[in-house]
Every structure is written in C-alpha cells, then in structure tokens.
C-alpha cells in the first residue's frame, strides 16, 4: 500500500491526523522479497551447528537431556547469581573455553524438574534446528537467564514463553576445528593457530550455535477453559503453537534475514503455530492471544501490548492498531479457507509465510485484503526438495 492508501485505511479505522502520523511511523512490517530466488527451494540446508546438536540429541536419548546439556553447555554448570558473568571462572569458561568440570561451584544451574527437560532436532522449512523444552515456567526462566542473560538474575517477561538463542560460542566445535586443522597442517599451536583462529572468528556460523528454548504451559497465558479445551489438550496444543511460532521466526531469519518484533511478525508466526495445532487458521484464537477476544474492548495484559512500538503508540493510535489486527486476522482466515489444500503441504505453508511477509500488516486490513493476499500468494513460488521427516 502507498502512503495515501494507508492514510485512508487509518482514517477508516478512526485515526485522526496525529494518530495517522504515529501509525505511518510504526510501519507495516513488510519485508523486501525482491532478492529471493524464484522458485525458492526449501528446506534450506542445515546451519553448521546442527550436526553437533544432532550428536547431542542422540546422546540425550541415551543419557537424558539434562545431563547431556549440562555436559556440553558450560553456562549450565554455573548458578544464576548477580555478578557471576564477570567472575574469572565464568569468563574463562565462556570466553576462552576453559574446562569447568573440576570447578567447585555449589550446584550449577538448579531446576525444579531437570528430568523433564527434553531435546529434539526439529525439521523446518529453514533447515533443522535444536529445540529444548522446559516442563515448567521456573525452569524456562532459569534456562533463559543462563543461556541468554549470561547467568545474571535478569527478569524474564511473563509474556515470554520461547526464546531463540543465537551467537553462543561452542568451544567443543572450536576444539574439533582445531584438531582437524592440526591433523591437516601438522601444526599444534602458536602463531599458526592464532592466525587460523582469526580466520575462524570471521565465520561465526562455524563456532557459534543457534537453538530454541521453549516452556510447557498455556500459550499467551490463555487458560484451557477460555479455549474450551481440556487442560491436557490445551497444554499439548500450546506447546505445538509455541514451537511452530518460533520455527516461523527462524524461517524469516534465515530466508529473509530478519526477525524483529513487529505485529506482522507475530501474525505470521502465530499463523504457523495455529495451523499446526488446529489444522486451519483461527482468527478467534489469534485475537484471544492478543487480548482482543471481545473486540473492540481490549483486555489489558494481552500480548498486543508487546508490539506497541518504540516509542509506544498513544492510546488512540493503539486502538486503531487493534482494529487493524482484527481486520487482518479476519482476512487471513478467509484466505486460508481458500487455500486449505495447498496449505496442507509444507511448501504451501512456507509460501503463505512469504506472502504475508511481503504484503505487510496494513494491506491485510484493507477492504480488498483477500484479493491482495491472492496476488501475493501467486507472486511467490516454492519448490520442496523432499518430504520433511516428523
């Protein structure tokens, strides 16, 4: 949509001139797809870290996920404690790869249900990725504090139930690279290794890991009763939504080079999760997750508050954003019904994510949104190499 069309849309949704200016600055979240191959061949090749994490997953099946993760992730051998990231032992382990097996640390990272932690390698359109699942909220918080916040006791927002861990140094991969280099060159260290290490550091994908951490529990803090489901069924579906939501973010990160916190990103990621859990897109689910189940009344504390922008939208502009979210969800549900057969295949679901990413949020709320979606869908082409394994 051009600026004039967007202004007309905002006015139709009740925005005045000041609120319109805010919403124009907020943006529509659309991504540039002009550089993508046509057709785009999926799934993408695995990132280099996946082979190592596959070995961890194999080990976890034998020894249990938590002992395996503690064995291979040094940060899990340290407690969460203020200032620990600046301690000598911690810096030696995480920044230089020092052995921490003999350190007399009180008890490392303490979880409530370590035996219930799981590790799997998930197949996605963007290639495989490791997924760690914590069985309870407290354990998820501890894992995020250790793996993202460097074992510092930083607050983890209540709305966060999943996290992508990126840029984490894996000193086992570095050691394996050094061993292979030494065997190939006959060198053992010194200046030659420092030069080789400098070359390695220029290619962080060869020594840094990327993986997903999830928690069990109700998605978006919505109760099973509110969803009209049994507690057991909603718990299972919540995990499915959360997992596929994060895998959709992984897709936009690898395919489109970005994973930002715009409402459009949440719409397309929740699309992937809802379709995986419910078999079709349900606008009522998405709106409930946002806090708009009783629109135009907004439920305070709904997830939509997380995507208010920076600087945050004024109350008036935020009300217009709520209307846009409702319209976009309705148009997406109508279009999804038309594409039920195509969407059933992995290539179709990836094609839908591309169409949404390129179209933008405002176009999804336009009066002719379904026609715009149709055009965006046909503008994309995806070729699937083979059927992904479960």
3D architecture notes:
The protein has 390 residues and is an alpha/beta fold. It has a domain at 1-30 and 232-385. Helices cover 51% and strands 8% of the residues. The protein has 17 helices and six strands. The strands form two sheets. It has a four-stranded mixed sheet with strand order 2-3-5-4, sandwiched between helices. The protein has a two-stranded parallel ribbon with strand order 1-6. A hairpin with a 6-residue loop joins strand 2 and strand 3 (129-134). Helix 2 (17-26) crosses helix 13 (315-338). The longest helix has 26 residues, at 231-256. The two termini are 38 Å apart.
Fold topology:
Blueprint: H1 3-12, H2 17-26, E1 40-42, H3 49-63, H4 65-72, H5 88-95, E2 118-122, E3 129-134, H6 137-147, E4 162-169, H7 171-185, H8 190-201, E5 208-215, H9 224-227, H10 231-256, H11 263-278, H12 283-290, H13 315-338, H14 340-343, H15 346-359, H16 361-364, H17 369-379, E6 382-384
Parallel strand pairs: 1-6, 3-5
Antiparallel strand pairs: 2-3, 4-5
Helix pairs in contact: 1-2, 2-13, 3-4, 10-11, 11-15, 12-13, 13-17, 15-17
What strand order characterises the main sheet?
A: 2-3-5-4
**Overall helicity:** 40-55%
> Mean of the pLDDT scores?
93
**What is the string of helix and strand elements?**
HHEHHHEEHEHHEHHHHHHHHHE
Structural class by sheet pairing and helices: alpha/beta
Low-confidence stretches: none
Which key phrases capture this entry?
alpha/beta; 4-stranded mixed beta sheet; 390 residues; two-stranded parallel sheet; globular
């Amino acid at each position: 949509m051009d600026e004039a069309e967007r202004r007309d849309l905002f006015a139709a949704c009740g925005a005045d001139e000041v609120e319109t200016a805010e919403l124009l600055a907020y943006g529509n979240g659309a991504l540039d797809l002009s550089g993508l191959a046509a057709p785009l061949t999926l799934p993408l090749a695995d990132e280099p870290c996946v082979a190592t994490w596959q070995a961890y997953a194999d080990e976890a099946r034998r020894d249990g996920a938590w002992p395996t993760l503690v064995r291979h992730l040094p940060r899990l051998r340290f407690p969460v404690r203020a200032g620990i990231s600046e301690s000598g032992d911690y810096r030696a382990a995480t920044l230089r790869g020092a052995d921490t097996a003999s350190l007399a640390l009180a008890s490392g990272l303490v979880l409530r249900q370590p035996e219930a932690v799981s590790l799997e390698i998930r197949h996605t359109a963007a290639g495989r990725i490791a997924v760690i699942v914590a069985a309870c909220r407290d354990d998820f918080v501890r894992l995020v504090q250790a793996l993202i916040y460097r074992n510092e006791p930083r607050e983890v927002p209540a709305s966060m139930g999943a996290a992508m861990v990126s840029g984490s140094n894996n000193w086992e991969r570095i050691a394996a690279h050094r061993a292979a280099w030494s065997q190939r060159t006959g060198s053992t260290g010194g200046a030659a290794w420092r030069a080789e290490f400098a070359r390695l550091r220029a290619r962080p994908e060869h020594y840094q890991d990327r993986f997903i951490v999830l928690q069990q529990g109700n998605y978006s803090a919505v109760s099973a009763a509110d969803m009209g489901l049994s507690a057991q069924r909603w718990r299972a579906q919540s995990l499915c939504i959360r997992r596929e939501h994060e895998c959709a973010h992984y897709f936009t990160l690898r395919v489109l080079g970005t994973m930002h916190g715009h409402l459009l990103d949440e719409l397309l990621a929740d699309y992937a999760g809802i379709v995986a859990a419910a078999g079709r897109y349900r606008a009522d689910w998405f709106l409930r997750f946002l806090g708009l189940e009783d629109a135009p009344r907004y439920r305070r504390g709904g997830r939509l508050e997380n995507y208010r922008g920076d600087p945050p939208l004024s109350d008036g502009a935020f009300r217009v954003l709520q209307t846009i979210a409702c319209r976009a969800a309705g148009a997406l549900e109508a279009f999804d019904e038309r594409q039920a057969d195509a969407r059933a295949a992995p290539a179709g679901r990836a094609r839908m994510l591309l169409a949404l990413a390129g179209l933008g949020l405002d176009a999804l709320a336009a009066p002719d949104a379904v026609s715009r979606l149709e055009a965006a869908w046909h503008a994309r082409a995806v070729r699937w190499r083979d059927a992904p394994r479960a």
